[in-house]
């Protein structure tokens, strides 16, 4: 299989990637991991397909794609602060999901964070 397109794509996009992009992708991966651990340790009768449904995977994939596209365009047109604001919003969104999963797993979360999480639900 020829991966020259991916290498070409990466060389074009790579200059616009910075630590925000890598943190964003890491946050999504950690969210998937904590969802899986929550599923494994859950006493509720939750199906695996409810956690990792095609709908959720498409939604997250679309979010990743749109954030990367907008981040690159914002960087090209020198709207870096808007690009960082956009990606920070999604990092916070997935970060809250991680905290909810950690709370559901049983890992101790400080009480003031639990109160804030109930407000966001």
Automatic annotation (TrEMBL):
Cellular location(s): Membrane
Keywords tagged on the record: Membrane, Transmembrane, Transmembrane helix
Membrane topology (UniProt): Multi-pass membrane protein
TM regions (residue ranges): 20-41, 62-79, 91-113
Keyword Cell membrane included in the entry's annotation: no
Domain of life, per lineage: Bacteria
Primary subcellular site in the record, as a coarse category: membrane
InterPro entries (UniProt xref): Phage_holin_4_1 (IPR006480)
Pfam families: Phage_holin_4_1 (PF05105)
Family statement drawn from the similarity comment of this UniProt entry: Belongs to the bacteriophage holin family. Cp-1 holin subfamily.
Protein name: Holin
Organism: Carnobacterium inhibens
């Amino acid at each position: 299989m020829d991966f020259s397109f991916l290498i070409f794509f990466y060389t074009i996009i790579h200059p616009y990637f910075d630590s925000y992009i890598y943190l964003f992708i890491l946050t999504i991966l950690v969210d998937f991991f904590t969802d899986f651990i929550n599923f494994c340790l859950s006493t509720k009768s939750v199906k695996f397909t409810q956690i990792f449904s095609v709908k959720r995977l498409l939604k997250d994939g679309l979010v990743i794609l749109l954030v990367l596209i907008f981040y690159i365009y914002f960087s090209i047109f020198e709207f870096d602060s808007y690009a960082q604001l956009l990606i920070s919003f999604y990092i916070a969104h997935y970060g809250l999901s991680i905290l909810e999963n950690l709370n559901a797993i049983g890992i101790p979360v400080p009480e003031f964070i639990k109160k804030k999480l109930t407000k966001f639900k």
